[in-house]
Specification:
This is Contactin-associated protein-like 4. By secondary structure, the protein is mainly beta. The chain is 7% helix and 39% strand. It has 11 helices and 84 strands. The strands form 14 sheets. Strands 42, 43, 44, 45, 47, 50, 52, 53 and 84 form a 9-stranded antiparallel sheet that branches. Strands 1, 2, 3, 4, 5, 6, 7 and 8 form an 8-stranded antiparallel sheet that branches. Strands 23, 25, 30, 31, 32, 34, 35 and 37 form an 8-stranded antiparallel sheet that branches. A hairpin with a 4-residue loop joins strand 43 and strand 44. The two termini are 48 Å apart.
């Protein structure tokens, strides 16, 4: 982010220098001379004046002439003061003052500039602020320095607000310096051709610069023809400037569009264009905005054969010529306009090229809405011959009333309006529709569109843009004639006028060239209140703004707009928020794990809101580590096929992540590795007699560097793993394959030196000899340990803090972090500017507040929680501020938002240090832990800074209080320095969260016998095996749970016996009922408890839970109601001998009916079997060699105990980039996005 900020500042500085060069002033020139004080009274005009002593000529700064300044006849927002500077002048500042000795002064105002006294352009700060602060009394001077100098002849100031105890009163001054320029005018049929001299030396500038103004939205500005046939063109297309390249190989085809920049460039105002080339990089600047594109170096601005201005390079082309004015056309430092003026032989002109700028006057009116309207009287005679209305409009809105009028004679109303960006005509009478027409489409594109409404006897026509496809007509049975007046844009308020009621949206946009019965309407006369009436109109200007140029939508979000706001469509971008700034995905597999996710495919965004795109990886969450797995095109063992005439075999690997993604993953991971394996027969690998290797590989960033070591060895060693360990098949060599034997050998291991990863390509050298055979395998890139996610600091004093460089988030700023504390307040983060600031704090034990100021006054966004935040558990905060809104998210609570002012300041300008955990005043500091702090996608290294800061300690232990609930099924949370893991030793489940069932398919001959230890054996046992293998020998009651799936009945599920011939048996009887038998005294008969649930041998998965305490027994099947039983004898199962699952090997000692069931065995699925603290099935499957179990017959672990009854990955959900509704970023894995580790590209690989 910082780099981009530096780049923007660099571009801005270069543009500023070029601006000075184009405008005819040097960068060192002082441009602050007073421009108004010496002007004659005739240079001043105003909308009105209170008296002759309040005339506009008295409005000079610090003067006391007349009544001490200008005051209009009435104080309202329709007043203005205008100054004619005599010629185009560079204006750098404006100062205001109230009327001398009065209570009359302005508190805010607008500035307008013009070259001709018409077609005014409003000056805006930051492209959004349209008002300037005024005065607080009549005598003090308030000066405002323009951020970008304006060049104009006329200056107009429009009062917005004034002292409530007085009226409008003004004295002013403007500052600047003379502006000189060379101007040319083209009429659409004229052009200029410049033939540069010899190619200049390489140190010369490669730049074309100019200014232009036009009323036409299309036309070729210039074309630079290269000597080899290539060419660059700048042309207007729908008000945007396009840069096109015609390559040498495509002289007869259409040129290629390189970029498009700017918008609404047909507004008849001057626009700066700079085209600069540096090697293959082209920079195009339009006004204040720059884009860069890379091109082939076949075209050079040094080597231009022809520079054609105002026309296309092809005489027969259908492209329009340019019609308008050009100023200060410079080619590599040469003033082409001056050469043309002097009739230089290098310049030739065609048609009427003049050296002045003659401009047609098209007076426009802006309808800013929502109460804007224009009423014009209909003075044409009402005859049966018909009538017509014509005008042009431009808008961004899909809907709005264009005009309305009442019909003569029978009455009725006519409405001409926009709906869904189409032109519609409705005629109604008494609420009943008489006629409807529709024409045109997409009319909210910001372009000028002409509309003609024509009524003739028996025919009514509406036409859009004078095109056949934009015409609609009908034959009404009544005359369509205007009664006595016509309204444009809207209607007056209802309490003002009952003659016009608008059932449609008010029009917001611009209109011009109004004509009633082919008679033009003079809007200047309207402005003078001499014709018609209007409200909230801006006459003699079009105030349309393109809020999507440049677009504030980030990461490929699509920008759309209305007259007042823009909207970003973030679908398919992988980002969210009002400007598509914040990533919808987590930044690592570690983060997904701690949101409770299990292994699967996920989109991760390694730099959050930064420029790196989301990428799909496999997250392999194991008990020990969380691995991020990045695939490439060939991860399988691949046999080398030698090619005739080639001594080496080259293999390149294409990764499914882009370069910057790979670099970021490796950088932020604690450990990365990649398997590198070579299987060989008569194919040597590394060491030759002269020392150079037969084979090598390239690894690391970019295309990679040559590496001459193999998997399992150290960089630069030119060894394999066996050489490092000293166990190669030939002790004199350092690789097994270098022994050059006829038997198959292998050298393999992991590359774990991060600077060498990933493996980019292999070069295998010894594969051409007769009898040589080889195969290689390069595994996927695997990384674990997110250094950013666990980077933490502990603040143990209210006065302690960490400080970092100033945070640069001028247009978009996002902050995310975790915190935990026992305090009820504290500032997490603060950064100050001169007036601006940003702060996030815990304001109470249940509230977090995000506050900031970008120049519009302080704003706050807060989130209130229903639970305490000072509970010493981790809580997550995500705050974002952009040009549209600010948002704050706390944990998973609803997001709180605060909209930004539509036309307010947008740049956050900070200049102090960034304080973390405290403030510059050392008040209300935070006490507790902050972790994983990121600002605009960049992680701040809290631990490194904490090591050298008093009162702050690196790291922060204690994670189980927050994440322990992720451990399921009796799993136990175990603390780690960086995170936690779930200990599943007391659980019948396994997996990262003890959530994976341990299941097995049983055949009738399968038997698992678990032998309980005697007490003396347990005391002697010093094994570190989990306690789920050994059990309390004297249990007081039983806690039994398991799941089963079978179609067999009767069937014995579980049998537990003691050394005293006591037992517990769980079975399915012949009636498909679950039956529990207890024999707690060998002298008594077994007691039988039956569940009321039937049909359990139906092949479906059923879960059973049994609990006994003394004589009370409960049994629950699935989610059915628990059933309670009482035994007649409350004995104990003492000195347990064994627990058997499946067939009972020694069934002679059992009761006869149990013996028959035990001999039958069990066919089906058993899962998550648990008896008290013992998990016999888990012990048999996962610890068969170290557990007291005996397994007889076939035993196959499967997923039969899962509800899906499928492979472990079949339950993974699919989550795509386009899933932007609701669950985006929720951490759901992506199913089977890649079915295998291998993707074949071309014929790189032949499987062995």
């Amino acid at each position: 982010m910082d780099l981009r900020t530096i780049r923007v500042f660099g571009i801005t500085a270069r543009v500023a220098l070029l601006l000075c060069g184009v405008s005819g002033t040097s960068a060192q020139e002082v441009c602050d001379s007073a421009l108004v004080s010496n002007l004659p009274p005739s240079s001043f005009r105003s909308s009105s004046q209170l008296s002759s002593s309040h005339a506009p000529g008295f409005a000079k700064l610090n003067r006391r002439d007349g009544a001490g300044g200008w005051s209009p006849l009435s104080s309202d927002r329709y007043q203005w003061l205008q100054v004619d500077l005599g010629e185009r002048t560079k204006i750098t500042a404006v100062a205001t003052q109230g009327r001398y000795g009065s209570s009359d002064w302005l508190t805010s105002y607008q500035l307008m500039f013009s070259d001709t006294g018409h077609n005014w352009k409003q000056y805006r700060q930051e492209d959004s602020i349209g008002s300037f602060p005024g005065n607080s009394n009549a005598d003090s001077v308030v000066q405002y320095k323009l951020q970008q100098p304006a060049v104009a002849r006329f200056l107009r100031l429009i009062p917005l607000d004034w002292n409530s105890a007085g009226r409008i009163g003004l004295r002013l001054e403007a500052y600047g310096c003379p502006y000189t320029s060379d101007v040319m005018s083209f009429d659409g049929g004229s052009s200029l051709t410049y033939r540069p001299g010899p190619v200049p030396r390489q140190g010369s500038k490669q730049v074309i610069s100019l200014k232009f103004k036009t009323l036409r939205n299309s036309g070729t500005l210039l074309h630079a023809e290269g000597r080899e046939g290539s060419g660059l063109s700048l042309q207007l297309e729908r008000g945007k400037l396009q840069l096109l390249l015609r390559e040498v190989t495509s002289s007869f085809s259409e040129p290629r569009l390189l970029m498009s920049l700017g918008s609404l460039l047909d507004d008849q105002h001057w626009h700066l264009v700079i085209l600069r080339q540096r090697n293959s990089q082209l920079n195009l600047t339009v006004d204040k905005h720059t884009q860069t594109v890379q091109t082939a170096e076949e075209f050079s601005l040094w080597d231009v054969k022809l520079l054609i201005v105002g026309a296309s390079q092809n005489p027969g082309t259908t492209r329009k010529n340019f019609q308008g004015c050009l100023e200060n056309l410079m080619y590599n430092g040469v003033n082409v306009t001056e050469l043309a003026k002097n009739n230089d032989q290098q310049v030739s002109m065609k048609g009427n090229v003049t050296f002045s700028c003659t401009e047609p006057v098209h007076v426009a009116a802006t309808f800013p809405g929502p109460n804007s309207f224009l009423r014009l009287p209909w003075t044409m005679p009402s005859t049966s011959s018909g009538m017509s209305v014509g005008f042009q409009f431009r808008t961004w809105n899909k809907a709005g009333l264009l005009l309305t009028f009442d019909l003569t004679r029978q009455g009725g109303e006519v409405w001409l309006f926009l709906a869904e960006a189409r032109l519609r005509l409705h005629i109604q009478r008494g609420g009943r529709a008489l006629l409807e027409l529709s024409a045109g489409s997409g009319l909210n594109d910001g372009q000028w569109h002409s509309v003609d409404l024509t009524s003739r006897p028996g025919r009514l026509t509406i036409s859009v843009d004078k095109q056949e496809t934009g015409v609609a007509h009908t034959s009404p049975s009544f005359p369509v004639l205007v009664s006595n007046q016509i309204f444009f844009g809207g209607c007056p308020a209802e309490d003002y006028n009952q003659e016009c009621k608008n059932p449609h949206d008010t029009f917001q946009g611009c209109m011009r060239l109004l004509a009633l019965d082919n008679q033009p309407v003079d809007l200047i006369v309207v402005q003078q209140r001499l014709l018609g009436n209007y409200s909230q109109l801006q006459i003699d200007m079009c105030g349309i703004i393109d809020r999507c140029s440049p677009s504030h939508c980030e990461h490929g979000g699509l920008c759309s707009q209305t007259w007042t706001v823009f909207h970003c469509n973030c679908s398919d971008s992988g980002y969210s928020g009002a400007t598509c700034h914040s990533s919808a995905y987590e930044e690592s597999c570690e983060a997904y794990k701690h949101s409770g996710n299990t292994p699967g495919y996920f989109y991760i965004d390694v730099d959050g809101s930064g420029p790196i795109k989301p990428q799909l990886v496999y997250c392999n969450m194991t008990d020990e580590n969380t691995w991020m797995v990045v695939q490439h095109n060939n991860t399988e063992l691949t046999k080398v096929r030698s090619s005739p005439g080639e001594n080496q075999h080259l293999v390149h690997f294409d990764y499914m992540s882009e370069e910057e993604q790979l670099v970021a993953i490796i950088h932020q991971s604690e450990h990365c590795q990649q398997e590198l394996s070579y299987q060989c027969r008569k194919s040597r690998l590394l060491n030759t007699q002269e020392g150079s290797p037969f084979s090598w590989w390239l690894g690391g960033p970019g295309t990679g560097l040559v590496q001459t070591y193999w998997g399992g060895a150290h960089p630069g060693s030119q060894q394999c793993a066996c050489g490092l360990q000293g166990d190669c098949v030939d002790p004199q060599l350092y690789c097994n394959c270098d022994a050059d034997r006829m038997e198959w050998s292998e050298d393999s291991g992991f590359i774990s030196h991060k600077e060498s990863l990933p493996v980019r390509s292999l070069v295998l050298g010894d594969v051409q000899r007769p009898g040589s055979e080889a195969a290689y395998r390069v595994g996927s890139l695997q990384c674990h340990g997110d250094k950013n996610f666990w980077n933490a600091a502990f603040f143990d004093q209210e006065t302690s803090y960490l400080h970092f460089p100033t945070f640069h988030g001028e247009l978009s700023a996002d902050v995310s972090f975790f915190f935990k504390t026992t305090a009820s307040f504290g500032v997490f983060l603060e950064n100050l500017g001169i007036k601006d600031f940003i702060r996030i704090e815990l304001s109470s034990s249940t509230q977090v507040v995000f506050s900031f100021d970008v120049g519009n006054g302080p704003l706050e966004v807060s989130v209130e929680s229903s639970y305490p935040l000072n509970d010493d558990r981790w809580h997550r905060i995500r705050a974002e501020r952009n040009v549209k809104e600010a948002s704050l998210r706390l944990d998973d609570l609803p997001v709180a938002t605060q909209e930004a002012p539509a036309d307010g300041h947008i740049h956050l300008q900070l200049n102090s240090q960034l304080f973390i955990g405290g403030t510059a005043s050392r008040q209300r500091g935070f006490r507790g832990c902050i972790r994983a702090l990121q600002l605009n996608g960049i992680t701040l290294d809290l631990e490194e800074r904490a090591k050298i800061t008093p009162g702050v300690r690196p790291g922060c232990p204690g994670h189980c209080s927050s994440y322990g609930s992720l451990c399921q099924n009796q799993g136990r949370c175990v603390e780690r320095a960086a995170g936690f893991h779930c200990d599943c030793s007391l659980s019948a489940y396994t997996g990262v969260f003890c959530q994976t069932e341990v299941s097995a398919d049983f055949k009738s001959g399968t038997s698992i016998s678990y032998a309980f230890k005697e007490p003396d054996e347990l005391s002697r046992n010093s094994s570190d095996l989990p306690s789920s293998i050994y059990s309390d020998p004297l249990p007081r009651g039983e806690n039994v749970s398991l799941s089963f799936r079978t179609t067999q009945s009767p069937a014995l599920l579980l049998h537990v016996s003691s050394h005293f011939n006591e037992y517990l048996a769980l079975l399915i009887n012949r009636h498909d009922e679950l039956e529990l038998r207890y024999k707690l005294d060998s002298s008594r008969a077994a007691e039988v408890l039956r569940s009321s649930m039937r049909g359990l041998a139906n092949g479906l998965l059923h879960a059973v839970t049994i609990r006994r305490s003394a004589d009370s027994v409960s049994m629950q099947v699935d989610d059915n109601a628990r059933e309670d039983f009482n035994l007649s004898f409350a004995g104990e199962l003492g000195r347990l001998r064994s627990l058997v699952l499946g067939r009972v090997p020694d069934s002679d000692s059992l009761d006869p009916d149990l013996a028959r069931l035990g001999a039958l065995g069990f066919a089906g699925c058993l899962s998550v079997v648990r008896y008290n603290s013992v998990s016999p099935l888990k012990a048999a499957l996962l610890h068969p060699g170290t557990s007291p179990v005996v397994v007889l017959g076939p035993l196959v672990r499967s997923s039969c105990g899962s509800s899906a009854s499928a492979n472990p990955y079949s339950a993974e959900n699919t989550h795509h980039l386009s899933d932007q509704s609701g669950s985006v970023g929720s951490g759901q894995p992506l199913v089977n996005a890649m079915k295998s580790d291998s993707a074949l590209i071309g014929d790189i690989k032949n499987r062995k």
